[in-house]
């Protein structure tokens, strides 16, 4: 993949992007009780949104789907520990992730929350046209591969299992 085929997000631009994304949420009048981060990329987005929206109640859903650049498992898989629905019950939940690529991961989490929470909405930095989930809050739309600052370099050590 050549450089023009990539969207590069720097740490500095991430600061601007996450603040603008939070501005969209605030301007809409949506007031989440909980921000549910989709790990790993959504951790950064959720943390930034939590500070900007003054939401201290952050939860985490560990999902594995991507195995490499544009390579993924047949379906996303939620890894333990799975969020406790008692903690989410009746809450307004903002699901945060870095990208809505195929939409499969966001659909998994939305379906997980369905009927259990008062309201669930999604906020992502990037959304691609092929995503099956249309997010309520999107900073930028692109169909290019995105290079995020947190995953731009290879790990300093390699694990054999995805956990």
UniProtKB/TrEMBL annotation:
Keywords: Glycosyltransferase, Transferase. Residues 7-152 form the Phosphoribosyltransferase domain. Pfam families: Pribosyltran. This is Hypoxanthine phosphoribosyltransferase. CDD domains: PRTases_typeI. One of its GO terms (molecular function) is glycosyltransferase activity. InterPro entries: PRTase-like (IPR029057), PRTase_dom (IPR000836). It comes from Actinopolymorpha pittospori.
